Amino acid sequence: MRRRDDVRADKYTEGVGGRMTVVLCGVGADTGNVRPVPRVDETGRFEYVPIPEKGETTETATYGSLRRRHADESLASLLDAVRPGSDGDWVTDPDAIANHAVHRDPNLDALTYGEHRPPYVAALADLDPGDVVGFYAGFRGPENDLKHRYLFGYLTVAEPPTVLDPAMDDDAVANALEAHPANAHARRHAAHGSLYYHDPAFTDHTESVVVVPGREPGGRLDRAIRLSDHRVGPNYYMADDVARVLQPARGGAHGTHLGGFKPAVECDVDPARFETFVADRVADAAD
User: Fold this and answer.
1) Is 208 within 8 Å of 116 (Cβ atoms)?
2) Is residue 80 part of a domain?
3) What residues in the chain have per-residue pLDDT under 70?
4) What average pLDDT does the structure give for the chain?
5) I need a labelling partner for 139 at 20 to 30 A (CA). Which of 40, 172, 211, 262 fits?
6) 122 in a domain, yes or no?
7) Of all helices (H) and strands (E), which one includes residue 24?
8) pLDDT digits (tens, 9 = 90+) for 162-180
């Protein structure tokens, strides 16, 4: 198990600049793993739909057991199909969808988050207690089916993130994950004894996994906050008024990129200012 000071010099932190205080991470169900993609209504209300789990897990939550916040139904009622792998078969049987375990990452009830994508590992491993991880997803809006980027939750970092290196043996990984029993990657490991069993792309070329333990303030927002205001081809870009507050580290010809494939966006904004931004935007949406 390696802490942030140990990973600064390795390949996962190459190209990462100065310390950021807020990292925005693109997560949740999208076109590659559920049909239809969840929608935000005209008041900003939404349902957080986790991606389907790819394999064995001790996670007991399923699409049929997780309840919607804004209807007396389960998350399964929103879905016509799920696909556990990015190139696998779609599951369309309603009972199979309802009984399929979710990969609840982030887990906004337990305030824990894990990642294996190298750019995300690079951004998250360098965080300190008191920093913030925000979560955004592609939701269809009330006007059309464009999947604009919406912030829907966040957590405050409770302690330095834990980085699990591929060179660690499974016993060492298990020991490190004992402190994070509600994390989706811990639940994968508990079921199979390995972090990398679920996908040949990773068993043949393993990467580090970072686990971020969270604390309040944080959780799922009452209203989703739209971050993007335009798109170029399949890619969405952060609104200028949002960027002025959040101060993303990197921009480009079209502004700050939010995907297509959703990037980790490092922001040089004080956590207190971020929390004020969130509170103000949620209040505006609810009015």
Assistant:
1) yes
2) no
3) 1-20, 196-206
4) 89
5) 211
6) yes
7) strand 22-26
8) 999 888 888 899 999 999 9
Distance between CA 99 and CA 5 in Å, rounded? 42
Residue 208 resides in a domain: yes
The helix or strand, by DSSP H or E, that contains position 84, with its residue range, turns out to be none
Point out which residues pair with 113 in neighbouring strands: 212
Chain position carrying tokens 């349902």: 47
The amino acid that residue 257 corresponds to is H
Write down the pLDDT at residue 138. Answer: 97
Locate 133 and state its tokens.
């991880």
Picking from 64, 91, 105, the residue whose alpha carbon sits closest to that of residue 195 is 105
Antiparallel, parallel or unpaired: β 235-238 and 34-35: unpaired
- The total of structural domains in the chain comes to 1
Tokens of 287: 């009015």
Give ∠ CA 17-23-29 in degrees, rounded to 5. 130
Residue with tokens 């508990």: 190
User: How is residue 20 annotated by DSSP?
Assistant: P
Task: Give the CATH number of the domain where residue 175 resides.
Answer: 2.30.130.30
